[in-house]
Amino acid sequence: MKYIIILYDGMSDTPVPELGGLTPMQAAKKPLFDRLGRDAEVGLVQTVAPGQAPGSDVANLSVLGYDAVKYYTGRSPLEAVSMGVPVGKDDLTLRCNLVTLSADEPFEAKTMVDYAGGDIQTEDAARLIAAVRAAFGSDTLTYYAGVQYRHCLLWRGAREKQAALGALTPPHDIIGRGIADCLPKGEAAAPLLAMMRESYALLSAHPLNIARREAGKVPANAIWLWGEGTRPALPGFEEMTGLRGSIISAVDLLKGIGKLAGMRTPEVPGVTGYLDTNYEGKARQAVEEMRAGQDFVYLHFEATDEAGHRGAAADKVRGIELIDERALPIVLEYLDTLEDYALMILPDHPTPLALRTHTSDPVPYMLFRKAWKGSERGVSCVCEESAAATGHYIGFGPDLMKRFLGG
Questions:
Q1: I need a labelling partner for 186 at 20 to 30 A (CA). Which of 13, 231, 237, 280 fits?
Q2: pLDDT at residue 64 greater than cutoff 90
Q3: 62: phi > 0 → left, psi -120 to 50 → alpha, else beta; which?
Q4: How many CB atoms are located within 10 Å of the residue 399 CB?
Q5: Rounded to an integer, what distance in angstroms lies between the CA atom of residue 19 and that of residue 133?
Q6: What are the pLDDT digits (tens) for 99-133?
Q7: 123 Cβ partners below 8 Å, 6+ apart?
Q8: CATH topology of domain 2-72+234-404
Q9: What angle separates helix 122-136 from helix 190-204, to the nearest 10 degrees?
């Protein structure tokens, strides 16, 4: 028996005028997804618990069967684990985005132009983080380069400062807005604010950003610190479910969760987290994991979430379609050779195009078992509306995993 979850990050949405009043799930041409949906259980699941911020961190933990209220300690520690950052029990980690802030104004009067630094590539980002490390690094503050715009700051011995920092603002929540009200505040946050402020002059003058501007590209001209947290302790996924599991993703957040849960997190060449990712490579790796003896695979795609943050309706639709065209055929060809399997497709949270950030609304899920083929128990188009109409609703996110595994 094999189990596979295919996670379309941020796929769920609301009707969009640009799409003729449809959601991206309704507008997308996804014949394989919808064919499965005709013979599947389709419903809604609440992946984000009341009172929690609707991030990919808590939502993916929930889909994997973990109670995020119990186990979540912050976003950045999950990413830090994937990056090999040596996080001690008294340390604090922070996500460090390379961002684009508006020019000319004083720092506090600037606007968040791009939370992803003009989609800067990993190799170029490493050069900028090296400059940041040289300028601001110390015995207690160390910067680690990650993937594309996503990086990490380790603040040694600062665990007790987390409460005093308050909740630092994710940059994707303030696209197009002034940053003044969203900067770190208070005495504990003073070192963070100072580095963020000084990073603008440092990175604006970096030769790489000068070259980007001359080439008509958006510069990654500042750092933005957020996602503060301490190292969590997750029960092993195999201990919890009895299944040997793998997570396949382009992003450190998902790989960090996998490593903390004792799962395999194989690297796949050419994965980007955007529309240009290696769909076939990720799908083939999922098949290889199952052939090698893994019972459970979590196959994560990021592009739909990135499109939601940018308000890019056509890209969000295309992200759904590309998985259907290039990844699902490979996975289904293998699954159909098996005597039995279960497959689930869902988003972790909504990232509505109109809001360009995450929300806590329930998301549609599609759960298919091989034995249900031809049962016509499902819906003709898997989307937010059809999922709500079925009446199937799971109010506690981790219960979805129990249902998926047959519990």
A1: 231
A2: yes
A3: alpha
A4: 16
A5: 44
A6: 999 998 999 999 999 999 999 999 999 999 999 99
A7: none
A8: Alkaline Phosphatase, subunit A (3.40.720)
A9: 120
DSSP β-bridge partners for residue 44: 364, 393
The end-to-end CA distance of the chain, in Å, is 15
CB-CB contact of 55 with 171 (8 Å): no
Angstrom distance (rounded) from CA 91 to CA 102:
33
Residue 52 CB coordination number (10 Å): 16
Nearest 10 degrees: Cα torsion 96, 99, 101, 107 = 10
Count other Cβ atoms within 10 Å, centred on residue 405: 16
Report the half-sphere exposure of 155 (CA within 13 A, side-chain side): 23
* Average pLDDT of the residues in 256-266: 97
- Provide the CB-side half-sphere exposure for 108 (13 A, CA): 7
pTM of the prediction?
0.91
Predicted pLDDT of residue 167: 87
CA distance 46 to 396: 6
The ranges of the chain annotated as CATH 3.40.720.10 are: 2-72+234-404
**Pairwise CA distance, residues 275 & 313, whole Å:** 13
CA-CA distances (angstroms) from residue 85 to 44, 57, 81, 364, 382?
36, 18, 6, 35, 40
- Is-contact 81 146, C-beta < 8 A? no
Q: Alpha-carbon distance 167 to 405, whole Å?
A: 35
The alpha carbon of residue 306 and the mean position of all alpha carbons in its chain are separated, in whole angstroms, by 9
- Which string of DSSP letters, residue by residue, matches 153-211? EEETT-GGGHHHH--PPPGGGSTTSBSGGGS--SSTTHHHHHHHHHHHHHHHTSHHHHH
- Contact of 295 with 243, CB cutoff 8 Å: yes
Which stretches of 302-386 are assigned E, i.e. beta strand? 341-346, 363-369
